[in-house]
Amino acid sequence: DFLLEVRRLKKVYKDGTEALKGIDLSVKKGEFVAIIGPSGAGKSTLLRCINLLVKPTEGEVYFNGYNILKASKKELRNIRREIGMIFQNFNLIPRTTVIDNVLNGRLGYVGTLRSCCGLFSKKDKEFAFELLERVGLSDKALKKVEELSGGQQQRVAIARALAQTPKLILADEPVASLDPVTADNIMEYMFDICKKDNIAFVVNLHQVEFAKKYADRIIGIKKGIKIFDNVQYFLSEDI
Ligand code: ADP
Ligand code: ADP
User: Fold this and answer.
1) Which is it for the CA torsion 223, 225, 229, 233, positive or negative?
2) Which of 9, 10, 12, 17 best tests ligand 1's pocket when mutated (most atoms within 8 Å of CB)?
3) Closest ligand 1 atom, CA of 41?
4) What whole-number distance in Å separates Cα of residue 155 and Cα of residue 129?
5) Transmembrane stretches, by residue range (predicted)?
6) Residues with C-beta less than 6 Å from any ligand 1 atom
7) pLDDT on residue 234
8) Is the CB of residue 82 less than 8 Å from the CB of residue 162?
9) DSSP letter at 120?
């Protein structure tokens, strides 16, 4: 049974750019899927259509059985909570502590305000600490995010996504701004979490080597079209 099913997804931006031209994609629970393709292929648009940061022009997106394009506001809130997002540039809340960023994943913006006023519950705080421990950052909990390295900031972003207790994490070029060793380390954290917590990952990647090393499945996208799915051996010149 699939956790996520995308059918004939199309996106035409206001300026007429056809970013997606009918993409089909199914993702199982706990599956680690890599999406590769050149810059401008539509990878980012695809992830944004799944969590409705971008409104698809045509097609269907089913998450956990719900058609997210037809969901009520309340259903959509629940769906969004179960889909975590990780970005290339980490997208942490600046001038704010590591633990507040993680609590933001659990409680949303209101949670961050509460935590800034010292009003977070002991249980929430403990939960956030546990997540920071999982990404090796419990000693950094009270640091401001600017004091952390890029790899550490991405680990905070992973902990923040986990704080939502998601079923799916969408990662848009999560290692593109990191050096190769740090990038590999972040890939390993994500893979480990995927398998231990049974959280599905859909990860946009430039680097074919990371896709080959970690993904259960590799999907290739070019000019808004899926050009391969689950091809174990392909020529990198194809992409
Ligand atoms: P990728 O993530 O593979 O680099 P994107 O999804 O970012 O690809 O972009 C796909 C295409 O859509 C590109 O041609 C890009 O310029 C275009 N595009 C992306 N966002 C917008 C937007 N907000 N408005 C218009 N065109 C966009
Ligand atoms: P990516 O690294 O995903 O390729 P881009 O540099 O293409 O990112 O895009 C950065 C931002 O600009 C995104 O929010 C994207 O939606 C937007 N964007 C990209 N292309 C266009 C475009 N042609 N017109 C308007 N917005 C765009």
Assistant:
1) negative
2) 17
3) 3
4) 13
5) none
6) 13, 15, 17, 19, 37, 39-45
7) 54
8) no
9) -
Query: How many angstroms is it from 191 CA to the middle of ligand 2?
Result: 27
Q: Indicate if ligand 2 lies below 6 Å from the C-beta of 44.
A: yes
DSSP summary character for residue 177? T
Structure tokens at 48: 């944004």
Place of tokens 């004091």: 147
Tens-place pLDDT, residues 44-60: 999 999 999 999 999 99
pTM for the whole structure: 0.90
Going through the chain in order, the beta strands assigned E by DSSP cover 2-12, 18-28, 32-36, 58-63, 66-67, 83-86, 168-172, 200-205, 217-222, 225-229
The DSSP code sequence of 148-169 is S-HHHHHHHHHHHHHHT--SEE
Residue 4: phi, psi to the nearest 5? -130, 130
Distance 121 CA to ligand 2 centre (A): 39
Query: Of 210, 216, 150, whose CA–CA distance to 177 is shortest?
Result: 150
Best CA proximity match to 199, nearest among 86, 72, 59: 86
Segments of the chain scoring below 70 in pLDDT: 108-119, 231-239
ipTM of the prediction:
0.81
Q: In angstroms, what is the span from residue 44 Cα to ligand 2's centroid?
A: 9
